[in-house]
Specification:
Helices cover 71% and strands 0% of the residues. By secondary structure, the protein is mostly helical.
């Protein structure tokens, strides 16, 4: 009996090939399902690497990359390993997610995505600690999240890109950064949990930063 080489059905390699095909074809729903299957098959590194590879040129790959990365919790775990205050962890995680998406087109694949992500989180932690030591609070405006929020509110060109985001993220982001509603107000208006709103605003800012960052540097939320 001959031996048949190749990945067995359901393997991470097979899911990875399927995910790449869906991304090339622009099939968001199919790509999301395959990414979920890849994650379920213990293929987190493969999923992140594939999505990162395409995220600089494909809006749907960027959307999925932000969703998958944020969903794994690795950004918050990296921030939480260096900071004790939960509020600081959330701020640094949000800043990091924006910086990661903004820089995704520069990821060269020579290391694991999580290794590259860790280096960015370390820099955002260092920024946070410097702000804590500073006597002047003006530095807060340089946070990626603060800069992104300001850009959304003030620049028409950014709002044009914002309009192309999926409604799931665009609507709470507009309510937060354009209408300046609180997270609790947004949650009540959209009938969503407040934690869900915070996550969607954070992801929306990161997706926006990634789309803008692919064409040049992005300035990047109030907590």
């Amino acid at each position: 009996m001959g031996t048949e080489w190749g990945p067995p059905p359901g393997s991470t390699a097979q899911h990875g090939d399927e995910l790449a095909r869906h991304l090339h074809a622009g099939r968001l729903d199919a790509a999301r399902r395959t990414a979920d299957e890849l994650l379920a098959a213990d293929g987190q590194d493969e999923a992140l690497a594939l999505l990162a590879e395409h995220a600089g040129s494909s809006p749907i790959a960027l959307e999925l990359f932000v969703e998958v990365l944020d969903g794994t919790g690795v950004v918050r775990r990296f921030a939480g390993a260096a900071l004790l205050d939960p509020g600081a962890v959330e701020d640094v995680a949000q800043d990091s997610l924006i910086s990661i998406a903004e820089s995704i087109h520069r990821f060269d694949g020579r290391s694991k995505v999580t290794t590259w992500v860790h280096s960015i989180v370390r820099r955002r932690v260092a920024d946070h600690l410097r702000r804590q030591r500073a006597t002047v609070e003006l530095e807060e405006q340089h946070r990626p999240a603060e800069r992104m929020s300001s850009m959304i509110a003030e620049r028409v060109s950014v709002r044009q890109v914002l309009a192309d985001l999926p409604d799931l993220y665009r609507v709470p982001l507009e309510l937060r950064d354009l209408e300046q509603l609180s997270y609790a107000q947004i949650a009540a208006q959209l009938d969503r949990a407040e934690g869900t709103v915070k996550s969607q605003v954070s992801r929306g800012r990161a997706m926006l930063a990634g789309r803008l960052g692919a064409g040049g540097p992005v300035p990047g939320a109030p907590a």
